[in-house]
Design brief:
single chain, 141 residues, mainly alpha, Arc Repressor Mutant, subunit A
């Protein structure tokens, strides 16, 4: 899958719509991921999320499936999908740099916590070593 770069210069909503149209036109996009993107297209910004339960019902998958399709859109297709973990709960498309920062905050905290846990198993290794290993593994994935 070709991940597209999302930029915020000029008209961020227009740039996002261009990427969405391009991704939706790609026949390699999985049907459920396509359906999720078509729904999220109308849920832009953290103030306008669509609940995981509603998405689960509409896509006819469990909430774990919704999470996986959101991850696919973000990681494989470059669609900036965010998720609110506080009210209002749900998934949304990130429009601004602030939206993307907000969406990434949870993952950064989670990554730091996971590295700290890994260090508990290997106390002789530093966090930088573990982070370097993560970078190497990311490069081979």
């Amino acid at each position: 899958m070709e991940q597209q770069q999302f930029t915020f210069s000029g008209d961020p909503v227009g740039a996002l719509e261009t990427i969405i149209s391009s991704v939706l036109a790609n026949p390699r996009l999985e049907p459920k991921a396509r359906e999720l993107l078509q729904i999220l297209r109308y849920h832009k910004g953290p103030q306008n999320p669509c609940s995981g339960q509603k998405l689960s019902d509409q896509l006819k998958v469990d909430e774990r499936g919704v999470k996986q399709y959101a991850r696919t859109l973000c990681m494989d297709w470059g669609i900036p999908v965010g998720a609110n973990r506080q009210p209002p709960y749900g998934y949304y498309l990130c429009v601004t740099a602030e939206d993307r920062m907000r969406a990434s905050r949870h993952y950064v905290h989670q990554a730091v916590a996971e590295l700290a846990r890994a260090r508990a198993y290997q106390p002789e290794r530093t966090m930088l070593e573990l982070l370097g290993q993560a970078e190497l593994e990311k490069g081979t994935a």
